[in-house]
Amino acid sequence: QYFFTVIDAPGHRDFIKNMITGTSQADCAILVVASGVGEFEAGISKEGQTREHALLAFTLGVKQMIVAINKMDDSSVMYSQSRYEEIKNEVTTYLKKVGYKPAKIPFVPISGWEGDNMIERSTNMPWYKGPYLLEALDNLNPPKRPVDKPLRLPLQDVYKIGGIGTVPVGRVETGVIKPGMVATFGPVGLTTEVKSVEMHHESLPEAVPGDNVGFNVKNVSVKELRRGFVASDSKNDPAKGTQDFTAQVIVLNHPGQIGNGYSPVLDCHTAHVACKFKEITEKMDRRSGKVLETAPKFVKTGDACM
């Protein structure tokens, strides 16, 4: 029913930064949970990656989720319905805590190794009446694409292509890009004409949000553009640099306390920029947004603040 771009996010703790990069671009998450005895328990434990990934997905705005309960063929599971129910109940409890609505989430028992319930219904689990994985993907709702907002296209890379010239590449986040448009690159304010727009080696009359495109620009060298710059329409609210902004921050995981003057690296679309917390104005409830304290001295893991 749809074309899918698969973003394979790493599951290991050490690569959580890459997982965040991937997840921030996703319309839906498939949370893969191992059903093996001991394996599931490790993932859902307090420090486990099942918990951390589910929390990150929700926090990064991925509102649609499918849970795939994998390794149902394992010798400790043997396609057991009671093991499936046990895992489903425990994951449901946690997802509810994070903020998801589990009633809307399919829990699909699969075996990636044997192929059960992947692209067709498995005969090994006649007790399961829900959708198989491909069916669950087909049942997703494509998000509304913000075509009517001003163009924002963060650059992923910039190439020099022989016979063509400079080709910046990235994903359209909002608005539309088309040949003939005069583009402005923030934060530097460089302005140039877009000669052509391509996706999968085909020329496009225009590209819309969700499209990963390359576009050719006039009279600009590769050295003048870099990853993290944002392309915009010079005639419609072009992207500009800024000195400061107000942010809503959720502290997912931090060893100590964070106070005024804290200097983290900010990952924003494809840019990575060092910045500083000038002042923490209020601490609030992470789910309801209700203010708990004004001008707190510090915040720690689990807190939300402005």
Automatic annotation (TrEMBL):
InterPro entries: EFTu-like_2, GTP-eEF1A_C, P-loop_NTPase, T_Tr_GTP-bd_dom, TRAFAC_GTPase_members, Transl_B-barrel_sf. Keywords: Cytoplasm, Elongation factor, GTP-binding, Nucleotide-binding, Protein biosynthesis. CDD domains: EF1_alpha_II. Residues 1-147 form the Tr-type G domain. It is found in: Cytoplasm. One of its GO terms (molecular function) is GTPase activity. It comes from the Eukaryota. The keyword Cytoplasm applies. One of its GO terms (cellular component) is cytoplasm. Its main location: cytoplasm. The keyword Endoplasmic reticulum does not apply. Gene3D superfamilies: P-loop containing nucleotide triphosphate hydrolases, Translation factors. Belongs to the TRAFAC class translation factor GTPase superfamily. Classic translation factor GTPase family. EF-Tu/EF-1A subfamily. This is Translation elongation factor 1-alpha. It comes from Phytophthora macrochlamydospora. The gene is EF1A.
